[in-house]
Amino acid sequence: MxxxxxxxxxxSKLQRVYELASPRIRQYLDAEIxxxxxxxxxxxxxxxxxxxxxxxxxxxxPHVTRIAGNDIARASLELAGSYLRGCRGCDxxxxxxxxxxxRDGIFxxxxxxxNGISAFGVDRHGLVAEAVRxxxxxxxxxxxxxxxxxxxxxxxxxxAQARAGLLGELDESRSRDGTIVCKDGFRAxxxxxxxxxxxxxxLGRAVTVHxxxxxxxxxxxVKRARS
Length: 227
Known about the structure:
The longest helix has 18 residues. It is globular, with a radius of gyration of 17 Å. It has one domain: Vaccinia Virus protein VP39 (Rossmann fold, 3-Layer(aba) Sandwich). By secondary structure, it is α/β, with parallel strands linked by helices. Helices cover about 40% and strands about 20% of the residues.
């Protein structure tokens, strides 16, 4: 995953990012989690790509039998160990989401939300391919990115992170059209519905795209056997 999250924005600093969220951003974050729960509840084995300190895993865990999460940042996983203490059925692993060490076809559902497809800084095609690979036949695969409708609130959230020293100073002149750029080199893009369609089509997989809460663009696929 991107070295920014491994070398700078990890552990308690990553947790601070969410503490700075405005009411509208909190609504967006909650809506994403509810969407995931609605589509994975009752599953036996679920995987979150890029779990950070376990923020989402903790909310999803009561609705599934077992949930695994991976992240590349050791400090985030160390915090997850305490954050998820007492949370049944949670497993965390240090590994790159685009090069998973899991066997083929072992998860009933795989999800990657809050724009991880951009934030991880890995090849998007490879990331989606890995999610498909480790999902069972009939398994659900979910990816999300930001909706253009939440751009102003998203930009304000990143400004707050920069003021708190969690990110570099924003390059206001270059932060536009869904892309946030910081003067220290950090860059966060978005993935739209058409791009999600193209990514899954490259793998020969059908996907449906939904806008959720006027804040997220979700790509949803079910892994089917190839004819």
